[in-house]
Each structure stands twice: as C-alpha cells, then as structure tokens.
Recover the amino acids of this structure.
C-alpha cells in the first residue's frame, strides 16, 4: 500500500519526508542533501518559497550532493502549488497490491506528463538509480549544458566541440558513437550498430528505434545494455566535469565490460563477447 500526497498549497506536506514529488519523498532522491539540511521539517510551501530548501543546506557540497542537487532542482522546476487547495493524502495500490517505485512513476506519468514509453524504462533489467537516470534523460531533465545555460561551459565534455544536449552527449557525440559501436560488437546486438542509425534526433526516438529493430527475444537485452551504457556515459561526463579526470575510450570500454559482468552475475542476462 502506498500513500501519495496530492499537492495543493503545500502547507501540510513535509518537503523532505512526504511522498509528494513524483510519488516519492525527496529525502529518498537526495539522501546526502537531506543529511546536510539544517531544517528537515519544513512544509513544501516554506521550502519552495525563495528556494529556502537550498538556503537550508550546510555548505560543503560533495560530488554526490551536486548530482542530487541538479536532479532534485530539475524535478522541483515543474512543481506548481495550487494556492486554493489543501494538500491531500491518497492511498494507491499497484497491481500486486503493494507499493512499488514503478506504480509511483506510472501515477506520475498518467498525471502531468504524457509519457508513452514505459517499456523503455521498465523493460530493462537495471538498478533503480540507473532507471531513474534514463527516465529523467528521456524527459530531457538531466542538467546538460543546454539546460543549464547560465553555467559558463556549454560544451560537451566528451568531445569539447559541440553544444552539450542530452541527445548529443549520450548518443550523437563522436566519442559516444565510438562507444556504442564497440558495445554493439561486444554484446552482439546488431540494432545498436551505428549503421542502423538514420532515424532520430532525441533520446526517446533513438531508444525506441533500437528497441523495435531488435528481434523480440533480444529486446530486453537491448534495453538493459542501453541503460547500462547511458548511465556509464553520464558518469564519465560527470567525472570530467567534477573530478577533472577523463578516461581513454579503451579504459572506459573495459569498465563497461566489468559492469556487464557484474550485472550478469546479478541476473541481467546480457550477451557478451570479450572479443
Ligand atoms: Zn560531444
């Protein structure tokens, strides 16, 4: 059983502790930020006014906190309080009668956002943080440089040439293209091969076309590999920005191969040919 807050004026719901954002508690999205917040009991209304939740944070952000901050800030961007209505608690059930992150996401999708590709998220075998990342990337909510235009570095940290958009960074960057082609070979999944890409200019379309091109019994594997590699590219990008450290492509591919191995030990079922 799950409770979900339907937000009205935000006066009753607790900003950190209630499941009011995408059906989840912000402290679950951003545990490190929650830890350094000096005011953990503010209402949503108080916290959002003049970005008070940000002012409440003790100084000294770590890399993990920076990631949490960008993700949480992006989600908060879409929040609209309804000043004339009270907050209310709604009880919801997933199909199995128990709470799941999936039911919370779907509730959200069926609400404010028209999201027609649940299969791209839930068809993969992937960890929760990785699914969440791909979901926000599809919605173009990750803070690539085109979203964060007030930052003074607009360039893709992988190639240092193009404007960093979600699609460029994760798919279309020359560096990322080399990665995907190597991955297609490594996993023997032909729908990931560059030669089949003629078709997209956004992440959702690109994922959908790779998914549809795959044979039925390969579709889950294609999604799983896409989740793993999208996530690893994102980590590499953050490493370059926040740690001023970059990996050569062969070192990166070795890391991906290790991750595939780990995921497979846990049941992911990714085909793998070390070559
Ligand atoms: Zn690039």
């Amino acid at each position: 059983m799950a409770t979900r807050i339907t937000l009205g004026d935000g006066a009753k719901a607790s900003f950190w502790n209630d499941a009011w954002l995408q059906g989840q508690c912000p402290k679950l999205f951003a545990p490190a930020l929650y830890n350094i917040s000096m005011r953990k009991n503010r209402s949503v209304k108080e916290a959002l006014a003049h970005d008070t939740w940000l002012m409440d944070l003790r100084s000294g952000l770590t890399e993990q906190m920076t990631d949490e901050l960008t993700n949480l800030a992006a989600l908060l961007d879409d929040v609209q309080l309804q000043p004339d209505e009270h907050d209310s608690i709604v009880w919801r059930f997933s199909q199995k009668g128990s709470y799941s992150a999936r039911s919370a996401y779907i509730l959200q999708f069926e609400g404010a956002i028209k999201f027609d590709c649940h299969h791209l998220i839930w068809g993969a075998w992937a960890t929760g943080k990785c699914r969440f990342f791909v979901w926000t990337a599809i919605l173009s909510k990750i803070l690539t440089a085109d979203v964060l235009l007030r930052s003074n570095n607009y360039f893709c940290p992988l190639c240092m040439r193009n404007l960093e958009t979600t699609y460029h960074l994760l798919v279309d960057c020359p560096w990322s293209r080399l990665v995907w082609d190597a991955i297609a070979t490594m996993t023997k999944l032909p729908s990931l091969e560059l030669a089949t890409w003629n078709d997209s200019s956004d992440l959702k379309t690109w994922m959908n076309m790779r998914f549809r091109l795959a044979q039925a019994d390969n579709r889950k594997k294609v999604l799983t590999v896409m989740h793993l590699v999208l996530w690893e590219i994102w980590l590499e990008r953050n490493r370059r920005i926040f740690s001023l450290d970059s990996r050569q492509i062969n070192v990166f591919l070795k890391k991906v191969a290790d991750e595939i191995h780990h995921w497979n030990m846990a049941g992911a079922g990714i085909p793998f040919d070390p070559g």
User: Anything to note?
Assistant: The mean pLDDT is 81. The radius of gyration is 20 Å. The chain has 13 helices and two strands. The longest helix spans residues 219-242.
